[in-house]
Each structure stands twice: as C-alpha cells, then as structure tokens.
Design a protein that fits this description.
Blueprint lengths: L40 H6 L21 E2 L4 E2 L3 E4 L7 E3 L4 E6 L8 E6 L4 E5 L30 E2 L4 E4 L12 E7 L11 E2 L2 H6 L18 E5 L4 E4 L10 E4 L5 E6 L8 E6 L4 E4 L10 E4 L6 E5 L8 E6 L4 E4 L10 E4 L6 E5 L8 E6 L4 E5 L9 E4 L6 E5 L8 E6 L4 E4 L10 E4 L5 E5 L4
Antiparallel strand pairs: 1-2, 3-10, 4-9, 5-6, 5-8, 6-7, 7-10, 10-11, 12-13, 12-31, 13-14, 15-16, 16-17, 17-18, 19-20, 20-21, 21-22, 23-24, 24-25, 25-26, 27-28, 28-29, 29-30
Length: about 450
Amino acid sequence: MNTPEHFFNSARTTRRARRRILWALVAACALLVFPNPPAEAAYEDDGIYPLIFPVQGDHYYSDTFGACRDGCKRAHEGTDIMTYGKKGVPVVAAAAGEVIWISTTQSECCYLGIRHADGWVTRYIHLNNDTQRPDGSYTDDGKGWGIAPGIERGTRVEAGQLIGWVGDSGNAENVAPHLHFELRRPDGSNYGHGTAVNAYRSLRAALPALPGDPPCEPGERCDTVGVHFAGGEFKIWPKIEWGASTTSFIYGRAGDIAISGDWDGDGVETVGLYRQSNGFVYLKNSNSAGNADVTYYFGRSGDIPIVGDFDGDGVDTVSVYRPSEGKFFIKNDFGDGWAEKEFVFGRPGDKPFVGTFDGDGVDGIGLHRESVGLVYFRNTLSAGPAEAEFIYGRPGDVLIAGDWDGDGIDTVGVYRPSTGMFYIRNSNTPGNAHYQIWVGNPAEVLSFRLED
C-alpha cells in the first residue's frame, strides 16, 4: 500500500486569473484537430487504472499475474493480496460501479464482480465463507457469508464502500486467507467480464482509502487540475474530486511545454504552449483541439514559461524564468518585445511557480527546490529575500500552485511521478496533504480555473 506523506472566487476578486507553469518536455502532435484517444488510453499509456486499495488492513502482495496454476493448465489472472493469515479483513469496492457477478448460494460462496462506469470490471474472489467464534477467531466450517449485507446483483456501490471480508473460500481452502483481485478491460470477452490485465501497478498506485472531503465547498469557485501526456493529450478534471470524469483533447507539437491561463479575461483558464527551443507562444481561448488563437515570440532558447496576472487587470500573460541566470522576465501583453520588468530571485536551477499567495489578485513568484522539497516565494515582483519558505512533499515531487478551496489564495500542491498522485494542501505551510487525487503518469501537470 502506498501511504501518502508530507503530503475567485468572483465575489472576492473579479475575473481573477490563475497562472501555471510546467517544466517537463512533452511530445505532442502538430497544431491540428485530432480524434480523442480511446477510453482505456490511460491504462495503455502507463499500466495504471485508478483504484482505492481493496483490502483495508495489513497485507502484502507480489506480481504473480500470468503464473502457472493447476500444473500450468491455466495462468493466474489476478493479484493475491495476502493478509498474514487473517480472515475477516474488510474488502472495499476499488471503484464505483454496479455489481454484475455474485455468489447466491452457500455452496458457491463467496465472490463478486463490479462493472465500472467506463466498462472496466474488478473481481473479488475467495471472500470469507467461515463463521466467527466469540473470541473473534474464525472456524473453517464453510458456513459463513463473506459478502456485506445489502450487496447483491444490480447493487450500485461507491468507491471505498464495504463489500465483504477476506477469506479462503473456493479453491483457496488449503492456502492462507487472501483476496484474489482481478482487473478486466472492457472488450466484451469472457461473458462480458473482459480480458484480465495485470493489476499490480494499479494496486501499487492505489489510494489507501478515500481521501476525505474534496477541497472545494459547494458554491465556491476553485482551481482544478489538468495534465498533458507525452502523446499530446490534455485531460482536465472539472473539479478536484476522486472519480470525477475528465475532458480530453489533443493539442501541440513535440517538445512544446504546456501552460494554462485566462488569456482573454473571461474568467476561464485555457491551454497554451511554449516552444522552449525558440520562445514562440501558442495560446487557445478554449480547451479544445485546433489552431492557436494567439501567437507571438518572447524569451530565448532554454527559458521556462511562467503564467500569471502580474498587473491585476484580470488577464494572464506569459513571462519567463531564465534558470541559467536565476532571473525572471515579466511581460504584461501578448506581443513580441522586451520584458517590462526583470529581476533576480532565488537559486539558479530551482523550478519557478506563480500564485496569488496573499490574496490581493496580483500574482507573485516562487521557486521549488525539487531535490529537498523546499518551497519559497515573494508576493512582489522584485528581487529580495523570500517572504515565506517551508518544506512540502518528497524529493522529486513537482510543484503546482492553485486556489484549491476558493478562498482567493493560491497554495501548494505536488505531483508525485512515482505514484501518479497529486497531493493538495490548503495552506502555504509544512504538513500533510488535505486532499489527494490520482492523475496518472503525464509529462506535465497544471492547474485550471474553469466555468462555474
């Protein structure tokens, strides 16, 4: 189990804009319209399907998918999650969906399968079939029922909902208690259950449990998260909430860096691209495939784009950070020409980010030292010492700032490439994440402010 560690509100600020910065190189296609990828593209790209870990107790497991079974008459089609000899460990739905396959008699107890909204199926086998003694231990009498009350064929279950308990039923009577967990693609085979795929990487990246309440309260307008994959696909969540559907489209060219901002002052942030090889900027006023609406040149080869509303006029513009000099170059319009302001801040090589850290509607600048997780920033566009600094996340995490709770102040979030998780904190202080969401393994992660 992976346990996470350290991880516009128009009434307050009219048409406040956000700004983002990403720094991994990305492969994409030409600035043309392309068809959307298939629904299972995310799994095909990185072998990870977003899950809640199904066993809610002490456990261990290894990658035995495809191993010989019954003298190699068949291959193992799942992952055995062992529970150190314990029966009765809670089993939860790994994702929301409908129960389509379930034991109905004591003789076949106990298993079930769930089909999820995207057609994928998860199956849970060897659930408990033994009765429990008064002291809490279990018999081996085969007279118990390891499926949770109210769970039957056609039942709608939510991610993280209790569906049963670990046991040794079926052909596991002579081995230690465990959950045989399967993940199946939506290809229509196997009587509609689909072809089994290796769930090991998905389990390694799974949330240990539901992450609590989403950061954005009803009625608030908050930033959300988007990603840019190496194949050129953008994927944007309408809100930061586990299980929320996404909007996806393809835009860009190999080597371009993805950015997001409110380019036309309408209060909605949309995508853009920065061509680091020559400083060309390509901005779109909608989150869709197609040609750029605004193009111009700013910066020099190797500069890193930063996006923000640096003069408080409600429009985001593209500026740059030059890592070789540790210098910021600020520009408040969309034309070729010189920077209106330039200054040195921080240690050359640290990764820049932008945000309204004091809630005044004008963006400041910050830097993130990825090697140690150091975050530091200034609320003014000038040289000088940091006005705040703290440690957040692990070495190697990638920082993105956003107004995650709609209070008008941008705070930190980090993307952890090793797990595909994005960890959000609602204050610029050290501590644990307030919320987390799985975003996969993109080339870049960025934040967006969308329509209500």
